[in-house]
């Protein structure tokens, strides 16, 4: 420690270091000489800040306590609020096995839970999602251990060479070096280069191995999952789009697919334009939920009352023919569970009415509309569903052209009924094409112009901008080094992350606007748009703009060297990002 202090005092006397941050830069990879002025960067560019030890320390000091507190709060509330943190444990069927109630006892059983158990309880998507996280934990642990054990000592031995020798009679090892060379400019030894090359291959092969093993597990899980549902109606059904006019009836569609020779058709249904009926069903479900909430407010939790008998209450509702009879039957059963009946105002300043009576009346009103609507006749659309007697027939029908006219009777495997996005079922093929063109144009402008406002707003979070708008905060940051590091290193990153959190919401909206018929297709389209955004905006737009901005003065003086400058600076930006 004394040698380190002497070394620091010597450098201060030589006017080499001016702050502890520059000393940290020397110890952790910076230079010994007077640092060159930093190159110009585009507004909001924080890619090179990752090399700053102070900023990294600030982010770690901000993230580690926050993550630790969140973990402890979750462990404390997990067993107390199981309705929020473990809602599936309250299911009567397919409920997962209970986890230990100890503070950290849930971690090991959850990690060791077999994939088959997760697959049966929560489905294929959740099982694959959790398996990817488990694979990421294994890969990160392997790389971290190898990095600390191998790369750490190699780098530290190089940095320790800067420290003064203890056997030089008090003289510093830099006394005879007028202009010490920065450590990042010193050539690597052959041994260090060999270590870097070997570990590059080790990390790459480890990534390939873990990824391949995870994909192999996914293929096996997917195969077992679909074999379990091979006899369900969804597995034997195909969805047909662009149905011609002469086939837009249930018997005609069934006869057409029966004549193709794929197999026996069990049923065929052409989708009707039932927009009004769907709205009535949604309204009925809305008022049913409101009615349940009103009863919860009224009874609080009747299950704790010894006089509450849910079977009698259910029988009373089943025998009811109208809203008044239902309320009377419920009042008789729940007469001993008294509380203040909740009320609501019909308008902002209107009279208050009884919530339970109002929502019960509304529920029965829309229930009558649904009952009448189901008996009505509706116009057919160009979308239908055909169910075969075996899964092989459905697979054959989804893989071949079934109609002589192009783009007619496009057949694909039908999504599960819960997966169908019914709002888009009535959209015609021509309308879907127009929607796709509009959405793709919007995505193009979103990708190439999204970084502009983000960079502008992020640049406003710099100390110079804060000094203009909030001078008191800038002066406080100059006095407090931790606050200064937080503003320079963490705040812009946090702002950009929050701003980018809006992006998936926008992409989901655009995917729904395209007119896809399945929720899973909407999600896949959202992922594709987001991946395209990251690839084009971050890798191409940000890299090229950042490289041009850094070398704009040199490019303006010597235009023929534009290609050379881009070739030398683009790899630096790309490797920093990825």
Automatic annotation (TrEMBL):
GO-annotated cellular components: plasma membrane
Q: Where is the CSC1/OSCA1-like 7TM region domain?
A: 435-572
Q: Where are the transmembrane segments?
A: 60-79, 139-156, 193-216, 437-463, 486-510, 530-549
**What InterPro entries has UniProt attached to this entry?**
Csc1-like, CSC1/OSCA1-like_7TM, CSC1/OSCA1-like_cyt, CSC1/OSCA1-like_N
* Domain (CSC1/OSCA1-like N-terminal transmembrane) ranges: 56-213
One MF term in the entry's GO annotations: calcium-activated cation channel activity
Its membrane topology: Multi-pass membrane protein
Subcellular location per UniProt equals: Membrane
Its principal location? membrane
UniProt keyword Magnesium present = no
UniProt domain CSC1/OSCA1-like cytosolic: residue ranges: 235-424
Asked if Membrane is a keyword of the record, the answer is yes
Q: What are the protein's UniProt keywords? A: Membrane, Transmembrane, Transmembrane helix, Transport
Q: What protein family is recorded?
A: Belongs to the CSC1 (TC 1.A.17) family.
* Protein name, UniProt field: 797_t:CDS:1
Q: Which organism is it from?
A: Funneliformis caledonium
Which classification does the entry list for the species? Eukaryota, Fungi, Fungi incertae sedis, Mucoromycota, Glomeromycotina
